[in-house]
Amino acid sequence: MTPALDTAEGRRLLEKATPGPWSVEYSEIGDGPDRRLIAFVMGSDETYVVVDEDPAGDDEPSPDARLIVYAVNNLPALLSAVAALERERDEAVKAERERCAVLRVWLLDLSANESDPNEPVADNGATVWDHIRGDARRFAESLT
């Protein structure tokens, strides 16, 4: 099972952080072998420096700086998507529990009263066995 994501902590940190959107700009210092590429990660009112030694000498911007900017700029949307998925999951679990409770009542009724499982139990003419077969099929399909 996937560990729970602490969305409340993410939102708390985001509220206290420098407002976005954030961006990154680069500057070179030095020449030749002493040349360094410096990344400036900027929010609306703060600037943070990420030193990129550029050991490969490829003039590629700092992956750390790009990740920081990406994370801060996308965190609100990611947290909202997680919250929506959690609500959808909770609604599906609730509906499944309600459906199982109905089936339980039908099965208990069958066993207690020796009812005919082929008698219609729903307005559409479905029998208890129809419901059980349908549930078994959906369960089997969910495993693939």
Describe this structure in words.
The chain is an alpha+beta fold. It has a domain of 83 residues. Helices cover 53% and strands 14% of the residues. The chain has three helices and three strands. The chain has a three-stranded antiparallel β-sheet, with helices on one face. Helix 1 runs antiparallel to helix 2. It starts with 6 loop residues before the first helix and ends with a helix. The mean pLDDT is 78.
How would you sum up this structure in a few lines?
The protein has helices at residues 7-16, 63-113, 128-142; strands spanning 23-29, 36-42, 47-52.
Largest sheet features: 3 strands, antiparallel
Task: For the largest sheet, list the strands in their spatial order.
Answer: 1-2-3
Order of helices and strands: HEEEHH
* Individual helix count: 3
Structural class: alpha+beta
Average pLDDT metric: 78
Helix content: 40-55%
Q: Which strand-content bin applies to the residues?
A: 5-15%
Per DSSP E runs of 2 or more residues, the count of β-strands stands at 3
Radius of gyration: 29 Å
| Span of the ends, CA to CA | 17 Å
Bulk shape: rod-shaped
- Unreliable residue runs: none
Helix and strand layout, with pairings?
Layout: H1 7-16, E1 23-29, E2 36-42, E3 47-52, H2 63-113, H3 128-142
Antiparallel strand pairs: 1-2, 2-3
Helix pairs in contact: 1-2
